[in-house]
Design goal:
The protein is 68% helix and 2% strand. The protein is mostly helical. The N and C termini lie far apart (43 Å).
């Protein structure tokens, strides 16, 4: 079962001593290495680069445009262009240095997250959260059977499946978080 090849995807590697762990943590923080020490460290590099690019894009767009709707449209157009370039890299097996191909593919997910964060999501009926959680899980399970996404190596079926799987993953995780918050308060009340 765990006889797959070692590597970043599976987190299988030789035993590390304390010195190796510290050395690899420093390498990861300097973006010189990727390890499965405590999670997907490739993600740190990609989100760091996305934050820098988003800040630069926001600065330039704010200098040029004053209309908020226009700014959002330009941000979205840049995201789509980056996604198309990332998909090109995915289809032609180009990873680029510093995992930039994953950066290009993931930038739109950051943009979608920003747009979603501006929506005031309210939930009134907890039973609806259960339904949303179940439906998003079932859809995610079904779609991921016919499409694949492996962003650590920038491989995915197509841009639409990347966005759909990512949004369904967000909806599922968000609904689980709402349930945890709701029931953690009840558990704390029982304990205290």
């Amino acid at each position: 079962f765990l006889t797959l090849s070692t590597g970043n995807s599976y987190g299988l590697s030789d035993f590390y001593g304390i010195r190796d762990i510290i050395k690899n943590i420093v390498y990861v923080l300097l973006f010189r290495n990727e390890e499965q020490l405590a999670g997907a460290t490739w993600f740190l590099r990609v989100i760091f680069l996305i934050n820098i690019a988003y800040a630069i894009n926001s600065y330039l767009i704010n200098k040029i445009l004053k209309n908020k709707k226009g700014k959002n449209i330009v941000h979205f157009i840049i995201s789509v262009i980056f996604l198309m370039f990332g998909y090109y890299c995915s289809k032609h097996g180009r990873l680029l240095c510093w995992n930039l191909s994953t950066f290009f593919s993931s930038y739109i997910l950051f943009e979608l997250g920003y747009l979603i964060s501006n929506i005031n999501i309210k939930y009134k009926h907890i039973s609806l959260i259960y339904v949303i959680c179940l439906i998003s899980f079932l859809l995610l399970s079904f779609i991921s059977k016919i499409n694949f996404v492996s962003l650590n190596i920038n491989q995915y079926s197509n841009p639409i499946s990347l966005i759909c799987i990512s949004l369904l993953g967000f909806i599922f995780t968000y609904s689980i978080a709402i349930l945890i918050i709701r029931y953690s308060k009840k558990v704390v009340d029982l304990i205290v």
